[in-house]
């Protein structure tokens, strides 16, 4: 399927002077598509809209929504990656007074993950790359993903399905491409994302369901020592759902009942 720019099949592509290319001035959303329907569309657009406000990128939300619906109807099954850039700019960091954002839609096949990741759990790689603290960008899925690129380059092969990323103060934050939850005394705990990290749509969905089920939750800083003392650990992502974590460094966890419960909640939402 062809990629789109501003609602049309790509012909010339983006200018080399686009601020998304020059400075990473933009955002993206990775949207799963099933039977022509985009999953978690409202959540994706809500995060995108908040990010555009923070980065001073004007967003025609209904135009974007309509383009996504048209694109995913053609794609049918796979992943639609939406990229919003701040548009053309001259040399220098100052943004143009009247930016003209660019909208890109890119198609990929349905991702294939090993079935044992969900069934038997995963090993989590201890990444040495640290996430820089920047509250103004925290939570956003902005275009600068170099920290994740470096972290993912730390391991090869299939022994590890994900890596754990911390901030400079040894607080657990997230995976390279996933959010993290742990269970302590039947309380569902996920790291706060006030200074770094990406606020994932599956993370938000699971927190909403925990509230609906009257399961106690905490969103807070998690020192590495608290993480390794957890009763259960799992990762989540809007593409694969929930993966139990069984091993991290010298630590091992069983696949507990809350992990399995939230795995079923995620799988139902993803039509697995």
Summary of the model, kept short:
The protein has helices spanning 19-23, 41-54, 61-75, 115-119, 146-152, 201-212, 224-228, 257-269; strands spanning 4-5, 8-9, 26-34, 37-38, 78-85, 102-108, 122-130, 162-166, 171-175, 179-184, 187-191, 217-220, 222-223, 232-237, 241-248, 251-252. It has 272 residues and is an alpha+beta fold. The longest helix is centred in the first third of the chain and has 15 residues, at 61-75.
Molecular structure report:
Keywords: Folate biosynthesis, Lyase, Pyridoxal phosphate. Its cofactor is pyridoxal 5'-phosphate. Belongs to the class-IV pyridoxal-phosphate-dependent aminotransferase family. GO terms for molecular function: lyase activity. There is one protein chain. By secondary structure, this protein is of the alpha+beta class. The chain has two domains: 105 residues, Aminotransferase class 4, branched-chain amino acid transferase, N-terminal domain (D-amino Acid Aminotransferase, Chain A, domain 1); 155 residues, D-amino Acid Aminotransferase, Chain A, domain 2, CATH 3.20.10.10. 28% of the residues lie in helices and 30% in strands. Strands 7, 8, 9, 10, 11, 12, 13, 14, 15 and 16 form a ten-stranded mixed β-sheet that branches. The longest helix has 15 residues. The chain starts with a strand and ends with a helix.
């Amino acid at each position: 399927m062809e990629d789109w720019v501003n609602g049309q099949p790509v012909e010339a592509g983006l200018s080399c002077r686009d601020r998304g290319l020059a400075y990473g001035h933009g955002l993206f959303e990775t949207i799963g598509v099933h039977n022509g329907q985009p999953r978690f569309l409202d959540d994706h657009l809500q995060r995108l809209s908040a990010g555009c406000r923070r980065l001073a990128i004007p967003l025609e939300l209904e135009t974007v929504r309509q383009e996504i619906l048209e694109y995913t109807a053609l794609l049918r099954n796979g992943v639609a990656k939406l990229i919003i850039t701040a548009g053309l700019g001259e040399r220098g960091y100052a943004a143009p007074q009247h930016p003209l954002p660019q909208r890109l839609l890119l198609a990929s096949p349905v991702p294939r993950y090993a079935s044992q990741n969900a069934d038997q759990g995963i090993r989590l790689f201890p990444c040495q790359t640290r996430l820089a603290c920047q509250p103004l960008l925290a939570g956003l899925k902005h275009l600068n993903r170099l920290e994740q690129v470096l972290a993912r380059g730390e391991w090869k092969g299939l022994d590890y399905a994900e890596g754990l990323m911390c901030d400079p103060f040894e607080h657990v934050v997230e995976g390279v491409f996933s959010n993290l939850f742990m269970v302590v005394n039947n309380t569902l705990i996920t790291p706060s994302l006030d200074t770094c990290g990406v606020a994932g749509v599956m993370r938000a969905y699971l927190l909403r369901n925990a509230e609906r089920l009257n399961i106690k939750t905490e969103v807070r800083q998690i020192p590495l020592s608290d993480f390794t003392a957890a009763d259960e650990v799992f990762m989540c992502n809007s593409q694969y759902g929930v993966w139990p974590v069984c091993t991290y460094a010298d630590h091992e966890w069983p696949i507990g009942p809350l992990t399995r419960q939230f795995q079923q909640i995620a799988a139902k939402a993803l039509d697995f």
